[in-house]
Amino acid sequence: MPISTAMWLSSSTLIWLLVGAGLCLMELFLPTAFVALMMGISALVVALLSPVILVKLWLQLVVWILLSVLLIWLCRRLMTPVGSKSKIQDATTAETLTEIPVGKAGRVLYEGNSWRAQCYDEHLAIAPHQKVYVVRREGTTLIVMPEYSSVQ
User: Is 0.85 topped by the overall pTM?
Assistant: First the structure.
């Protein structure tokens, strides 16, 4: 018994709705930086278009992929990257809690909290309990230079 076109359209639409809802829900539980959400929205759009315009399955897949890529690109473009370097407006001071060895990280006390920190000059070590200037932030790491340094 052959499957009718109406049955194929309704099952295809239902599958896209389930995939879209699943991807959107997945974003709530897994941090995918909105990738799953954008793919889910694309699947929901394809579900809405599948009974009317997109009859062929291969065309539905192509539209879903293209729409997903476009939405992910737009989302990334509108959001600031998480790991981006952020400059601190004015050089503020902090105090080293531990030694910051040459080329490695240590801990500093900055604005009442302990932060991971690295020295701006990779060939310089900073002793504990020294005053340092916070130059910038890279993610959750502060880039510091010692108070006595001549590095600009």
Answer: no
